[in-house]
Design a protein that fits this description.
It is a single chain. The chain has four domains: about 240 residues, BirA Bifunctional Protein, domain 2, CATH 3.30.930.10; about 120 residues, no CATH class; about 45 residues, no CATH class; about 140 residues, Threonyl-trna Synthetase, Chain A, domain 2 (Threonyl-tRNA Synthetase, Chain A, domain 2). About 40% of the residues lie in helices and about 20% in strands. The strands form four sheets. Strands 1, 2, 3, 4, 5, 6, 7, 8 and 9 form a nine-stranded mixed sheet that branches. Strands 12-13-18-17 form a four-stranded antiparallel sheet, with helices on one face. The longest helix is centred in the middle third of the chain and has 35 residues. About 45% of the residues are buried. Bound molecules: serine. The site of serine (SER) has 10 residues, from β8 and β9.
């Protein structure tokens, strides 16, 4: 195997596919544009979804690139030697051009000739098929014709050999994955590629993208077949370099070195300290990519900003655990930018912003962290005395509300001490707090509500129905810009450039009235902003939200982040009627409407 650095692998991969007629394109922002189904770009194919679905790409139908990706699914596992929240993915795409016959020989050529992986160390998996989707014997035969013996070609089910879609809907298909045998002994007779014991290392994934998943959950075969491949840089260089962990490669070592200097320790000196060092290295690397992105966001209580806040606060806490004094995050970020400024010049363009934002958030949290930890110690001290090993929802909420501890941080602290957290109780305390602050703000405009009478409550639910109906009739560019409710009427401002036609107005009224006569059930749940976005909830007033949000769902008609209150069933709200549709300001329209009994 050729021992390669990240920079070398990046270049070899791109050059290889350029030599096969591909055009190199720039990777996209890590914050997806126009895709509410995910918070971050999670794969190289993600920004290419419209093209995989048929839109013409200006650079042609054979593309290659490297893409910064963020996967937040297992933030809490970061700290072990393997997990990362941010990684680079190499990829190549056929947009309705070549398919398996070309891709499998190229994969074999790249792995064995360019990376010089001995063929006998390679195993592959292919899709075993299921009802309606055939077994992929064609790929198996192609691999076999390359020289992979049948005993190293594994047919696997959907859980292992199906990729996508990236969000809820979109392009997807069976895949064929390539594994390197690390030479470690098998963990048992059933050990095979994909086994969690780590004997087999997945190096590359070729997605044979022939399907599209619909909103209804069906898989529709596409006439125009595509190829989407992905190879993770950090993992691949680790195996090529014979390193046990991505943290031992040249992309993480300089970051760990500076953390070690700040903490007066060396990586690999002390296992417990190593965990904190890896958490800081990973989290600040990812934070630098989020802040320094071309569409970078700042720490906040919602969406991507909330993930960023969680990462930074967790890093601050582990810095303190290591005994680092004063602000240090910008010093870590500086190393990240030195490492990645070349392939990602936007990091250099936004360098000052990265340092300023990191330091501001760090200072803000440092003020309360110590007091919060003392509070935590006190809580657990008394609980321990009583033989209780669970932190109540109310206590977790106090840590959140008074000391800015994201619930995930409290859970981590608790786990370290052998405690659990009553998460459900936390959610309840959170919801109750929202209720209280709403009562306290009665007469003001939280949720645009002036009072909580039966009539205003019904009008509030009508506002959600109106919002959803407008997005169905006019398009999803419609966003709430303001709302005001009196016992007599609702007023709703929303983004839309043109005057609505009388037909559109009628259509919206009909949709709302249909939702009312269907007597839909209104339900309320508490969840993290990230989960709310993932579940497709409409959420626009970001600055108002706490770190958990309540999501109101009206049947299958509407899902919105909102503080309530709402009716329980739409049935007896009355007849919805739009009185007026007029301009409010540039690009914003205003509707006044009533519920007639
Ligand atoms: N989309 C596939 C993956 O993420 C291949 O790029 O693995």
């Amino acid at each position: 195997m050729k021992s390669l650095t990240a920079n070398e692998l990046r270049k070899l991969f791109i050059d290889f596919f350029v030599s096969k007629g591909h055009v190199q394109i720039s990777g996209a922002s890590v914050i997806p544009e126009n895709d509410p189904t995910v918070l971050f770009t999670t794969a190289g194919m993600h920004p290419l979804v419209p093209y995989l679905l048929g839109q013409e790409h200006p650079a042609g139908n054979r593309l290659t690139d490297y893409q910064k990706c963020i996967r937040t699914g297992d933030i809490d596992s970061v700290g072990d030697p393997h997990h990362l929240t941010c990684f680079e993915m190499l990829g190549n795409w056929s947009l309705g051009d070549y398919f398996k016959k070309e891709m499998i020989p190229w994969s074999y050529e790249f792995l064995t000739k360019v990376l010089e992986i001995p063929a006998e160390k390679l195993s592959v998996t292919v899709f075993e098929g299921e009802e309606g989707i055939p077994r992929d014997t064609e790929s198996a035969e192609l691999w076999h014709s390359m020289g992979i013996p049948y005993e190293r070609i594994y047919f696997m089910p959907r859980e292992d050999n199906w990729w996508g879609p990236a969000g809820e809907t979109g392009p997807c298909g069976p895949d064929t994955e390539m594994f390197i045998d690390t030479g470690r002994p098998a963990c048992g007779p059933d050990c095979k590629p994909g086994c969690s014991c780590g004997k087999y290392f997945e190096v590359w994934n070729d997605v044979l993208m022939g399907y599209r998943k619909t909103k209804e959950g069906q898989y529709v075969e596409m006439d125009r077949k595509c190829i989407d491949t992905g190879m993770g840089i950090e993992r691949t260089i680790a195996i090529l370099q014979g390193k046990k962990s991505v943290y031992d490669t040249e992309v993480m070592q300089p970051i760990l070195k500076v953390i070690g200097e700040l903490a007066g320790t060396n990586y690999h000196d002390d296992e417990e300290k190593d965990v904190s060092m890896r958490i800081i290295a990973d989290h600040i690397r990812t934070s630098t990519f989020i802040l320094g992105d071309q569409r970078g966001v700042s720490p906040s209580n919602v969406g991507q900003g909330y993930i960023l806040r969680r990462l930074i606060r967790r890093a601050v806490r582990h810095g303190k655990k290591l005994g680092i004094q004063g602000s240090f995050l910008a010093k870590v970020a500086q190393v990240v930018i030195q490492l990645y400024g070349e392939p990602y010049p936007e990091l250099r363009d936004n360098e000052q912003k990265v340092y300023d934002e990191l330091t501001a958030e760090e200072e803000k949290f440092s003020l309360t962290l110590e007091k919060g930890e003392k509070q935590f110690e006190k809580m657990t001290f008394f609980l321990e005395k009583q033989g209780v090993r669970e932190i109540s929802g109310g206590s977790a909420f106090k840590l959140y509300d008074t000391y800015g501890f994201p619930i995930e941080l409290t859970k981590e602290l608790a786990e370290e001490k052998g405690f659990t957290v009553d998460e459900k109780g936390f959610e309840e305390a959170f919801a109750k707090h929202q209720e209280l602050s709403r009562t306290a703000e009665a007469g003001q405009f939280k949720s645009g509500l002036g009072d909580h009478s039966e009539q205003t409550t019904a009008l509030h639910t009508a506002t959600h129905l109106l919002h959803a109906a407008l997005r169905k009739v006019l398009g999803t560019h419609v966003q709430q810009k303001g709302s005001n409710i009196t016992p007599e009427r609702l007023r709703f401002d929303f983004s839309h450039a043109e005057k609505m036609t009388p037909e559109q107005i009628r259509e919206v009224e009909d949709l709302v009235n249909k939702a009312i006569s269907d007597d839909l059930k209104v339900t309320c749940e508490t969840m993290s902003p990230a989960e709310a976005v993932e579940k497709g909830a409409v959420a626009f007033f970001s600055s108002k939200y706490g770190e958990q949000v309540t999501v109101y769902t009206v049947g299958d008609f509407s899902k919105e982040v909102c503080a309530g209150p709402h009716v329980e069933h739409t049935g007896d709200m009355g007849h919805f009627h739009i009185l007026k549709e007029e301009s409010s300001s540039a690009g914003v329209r205003r509707i006044k409407a009533v519920l007639e009994k």
